[in-house]
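Workshop exercise sheet. Pairs work together: one partner reads the sequence aloud, the other fills in the structure field after running the prediction. Swap roles for the next sheet.
Pair: D.N. / O.F.
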Amino acid sequence: MIRRPPRSTPKPSSAASDVYKRQILPYSMGALLFTFLTTSQLAILYSIIHTIVVGYLFKGNFELAIFSFITSLAAIYGIKYYQSKKKASFFKTGLFVITPVNLFIITSLGLIGEKFALTDLFFGELLMSFLGAIFASIFATSLFPLFEYVYGIVTDVKLLELCNLDLPIFRQMALEAPGTYHHSLMVASLAEEAANALRLNPLLIRTAALYHDIGKLKRPEYYIENQTANPNIHRELTPRMSALIIINHVKEGVELANKLKLPSKIKEIIQQHHGTSLMRYFYYKAKETYGSKVEKTEEEVYRYPGPKPQSKEAVLIMLADSVEAASRSLKSPTPENFKKVVKNIFDNYLADGQFDESDITLKELMLVASSFVQTLSRAHHPRVEYPGFEFEKINSSKKKIKK
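Structure field:
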């Protein structure tokens, strides 16, 4: 009787074994970082180059190159899917996207080639897929701040951290300069809506708006929105001295931004949000006070040092800052009056050449103007009268009694 030799368990080939043993390497780390720090297009380009390099380094291992490419694509998809803009997206992507994709790739390659034993397929691939994905997430999270700092990239994660109103700088502003604080919140709302209309980064615009007037923290009592105890403080100063104090809030804002280690993009907007515009109130006050002694050449004394806005983002903050401040002076806050305010301010800055060094177009300015009017109209919406209350009559009667 002829006995058949016992069937031997197929041994994994060296190439297949290399795939799952080397799977623990964090192939998707670069794709995670590129997607988070730049764009999906650049991340895909990186993934292609990375795949070629992997194939070359591992002596043309086609299976490993395929694995590297697909796991990188999974990383790109995962970061885009978890659009929470937080560092936790790295771990969510690694655990819920990269890990199952890695396991599926290795399982498919093993089953197609019949190269793996069941134990290797189940335990080896599962362990390596999990560890490789987790290591990629950990390394990406650790290296992310370094790349962000070295290359000066402003990510949404960083902006979200800076927008937190519980930060000490905003708590200080709310206590010491409450008028400036609420002004900044309104400027942020105006500029953010306009950024959406122009398809700019609304989070960057909002962050810049919140920080644009932090220089006022040094002398908050000299700014009208914070003047409650002594509203006539500038009557004790010459127009030139008043202008100097107000102008200095830009320089002091940049200095404070350096201390806070704000991104360079935010510091640039702080420096440019007034451009080289004229402080008309104190300039005309000087002309009234000194008459012919104030020559035209002295107009430069009452202008901000600049530079003029260099970007669309800086233009938005400049316009939102002026429009918000001017809208508060209206006795009748109606959409028609808001349109007049916006038009006058826009025309004044255009005539003054404040937008000459930016790439914003007239069409975009029209979109911004329309957005501002809509936002202001919503913020100053009318309310129904309170039955049983006559606030204006009460106020007027009190005035008569005082007289």
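Discussion prompt: Confidence is low (pLDDT under 50) at residues 7-18, 396-403. What would you look at next?
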